[in-house]
Amino acid sequence: MLARKKFFTLIISFAILIMTITQAQATALRDLFWRRAWTEMEMQYNSLKKKTLTDHALMANAYRFQNRWADAVRILEANSRSFPASIRPYADMTMLLGYENLKQTQKAINLSESLYKNAPAELKYYVALAQYRLYDSQKDSRNTLNALNRMLANAGTDERKIYTLTRLIKLTNNNKLTENALDLLELNAGNKDAAAVLTRVKNPGNNIKVALGVHYHTIGENSKALDALKNATGRKAQYYRAWANSRLKNNDTALNLWGNLAVSGNSYAGSSVTRIGALAKDKGMKEKCVNVLDRIARDRRGNVQARALQALINLEGKGTTKRKEIFEAQILKSFPNTNYSFNVLWARAWRNIDAGNYAEAVRLFRQTDAPGVTYYKRARILYWLAHAQEKAGQKQEAQNTRALITRKYPLTIYGLILNPKPKLTNGTNPNLTIKPSELETWGFINHAYLRLSRPKASARELYRALTLSQWLGLEESYEEAKRLETLMTSNATLYRSDLEALYPRPYKALVDAAAKQYGVENNFVWAIMRQESAFKVAARSWVGAAGLMQLMPATAKEEAKRAGLAKYDLYNASDNIKLGTSHLGWLGKNFSKKEYVMAAYNAGSGNARKWLKEVGERADLAHWIEAVKFDETNGYVQRVSANLEIYRMLYDAK
Predict the structure, then answer these.
(1) pLDDT band for position 553 (50/70/90)?
(2) In terms of domains, do 522 and 647 share one?
């Protein structure tokens, strides 16, 4: 009996030893995988006498990351049918890519068709994308069209939709050509290929006329915009017809069209008020525009009325007038706790600072801090509240307010002015860290990233997706970080790894080369790029600014001449970075400080010079920001200034 117990104890101990060795081997293999120690990993894998399914999957994925597709396929063909059901589709997707790269086209097509039917949601677009490449290489127009339609059905993001629609409109067998071209122009109004499709339509309907009008407006061909819109109906057509007339200096016609939109109806009414306010600055138009704005402010209610009142206040100029006081009082009464009332209170607070009435300025700055004020705006309020408190002799209150800024708003420009080097902690953020997912354990990192970064992912899943995107070297890793920005920056502890994700340096070789060529600080290029496009190569604004650095076509044309670029593509990262950096270099020769260059980059050199003339070059950064009168440009200078300081803080020491 004792001998039998000893025997069983020995058997159990041996089994535990084998399990321990196996686990240690798996851990060692996994560690080598994460370190990308491919040569050592292959040696370890080949030395294993007993390989687990996880070992096979890890090694196959290791081969995939080295583009050793034949080796990856060999392992997966031999083992993937035994993988768990939750893993098998991702193994099949990897095999599909392997067959494609190995030119085993029919095998790839057969696998893609079976995989598409059962693929998880996050894989379907990519299976269809592979099908598109395969069928297109075979000149199979029918199945190429089917694959693109599958891609469109599973696209999910605007970037994928644009990619797919751009290819759909080039297929001659596409019976939805017009529909696809319209959809593409809705997403990318400047797309010339989509516009070309619509110009060939006989007897175009109103939607086509409007789409073409907006397209020509976007690319700055105003006469063509007018021609396209002349018989178009609807408020959108009227709005863009007005804008084309305005650009062609048919100001009375533009005012009449915008005025009609603003005095009644909803769509484009508020935007029309804004355009009328801008039109008033043209020669001979102020009185006419004021008359229309007076009518709008009298007869309309809600947001349209508020915009009209704000435009009228702006047109009254710097000083205090009876009309301005009436308009301001109406805004404060009818639109409390809005951006309109903020602008009124802010202007009054500054008038009191200029007059030396600091206690009243303190009261007004406190009043601007209303419910709904944004994170960045509150930092600005607190900064100037502290300034007014100090001037009013409230030294302790000013000190407390500044401490609040550095504690709660450390990465705003105001927090950085007060504390240029906030404390950073090394390591990962424990509040957001989770264990690796099952797909990661098996080495399917690309697919784990896709699943974790889905639109409805949790914060912890997104944080893990960010880690994976950085490991994969994806330029778009910033997208995950941006979705987590509030969580990453709202705690008392700031983690360096979080900030490096929020302030990455994509396209580093291109940026460094352009920065050196045009005498621009590389950190400045990233600071601009982050704000302009969030590092998206295909970014396009509603006014037609394009690419990573959001260059307008006219600006790009000028810079191409300076840079000696005969041909360029604003959606090509290299061309866009070169032209954008060239423009920064040119502006840097005309303005003595980067904060002036920022304002000029966003609002034009003329406006920057006007603001600079008003405030003088001795003004510090905070006072310069207050001199920038356009709301958009004011916020832009705040953000880019903060970006620049954070980039320097993170990387200059390195």
Answers:
(1) confident
(2) yes
Is 373 within the bounds of a domain? Answer: yes
Residues 225-248 have pLDDT tens digits of 999 999 999 999 999 999 999 999
Cβ partners under 8 Å of residue 48, min gap 6? 25, 29, 55
Cα separation values, 269 from 293, 298, 344, 424, 638, Å: 12, 15, 22, 47, 30
Measured distance CA(69)–CA(46) in Å, rounded? 17
Of the pLDDT bands very low, low, confident and very high (cuts 50, 70, 90), residue 220 is confident
Q: Looking at 460, 480, 502, which one is the last position of a domain?
A: 502
- Enumerate long-range contacts of 244-250, CB under 8 Å, 24 or more apart: 244/213, 244/216, 244/217, 246/275, 246/279, 247/220, 247/222, 248/222, 248/223, 249/282
18 compared with 106, residue with greater pLDDT: 106
Q: Domain holding 619: CATH number?
A: 1.10.530.10
What whole-number distance in Å separates Cα of residue 481 and Cα of residue 488?
Answer: 8
Could you tell me if residue 529 is inside a domain?
Answer: yes
Sign of the alpha-carbon torsion through 624, 636, 644, 384: positive
Residues 363 and 442 in one domain: no
Predicted TM-score of the model (pTM): 0.85
Structural domain that includes position 374: 346-409
Residues 584 and 455 in one domain: no
Of 444, 495, 445, nearest to 470 by C-alpha is 445
Structure tokens at 604: 């034009």
Q: How far apart are the first and last CA of the chain?
A: 69
Q: Looking at the domain assignment, is residue 257 inside a domain?
A: no
Long-range Cβ contacts of 293-298 (<8 Å, 24+ apart): 295/259, 295/263, 296/259, 296/262, 296/263, 297/327, 297/330
Report which secondary-structure segment, H or E, holds 339: helix 339-354
Which residue carries 């697919």 as its tokens? 447
pLDDT value for 24: 55
Task: Calculate mean pLDDT across residues 629-648.
Answer: 96
Q: Which has more pLDDT, 15 or 46? A: 46
Within 13 Å of residue 608, how many CA atoms lie on the same side as its CB? 22
What's the domain count of the chain? 3
Distance from CA of residue 316 to its chain's centroid?
Answer: 36
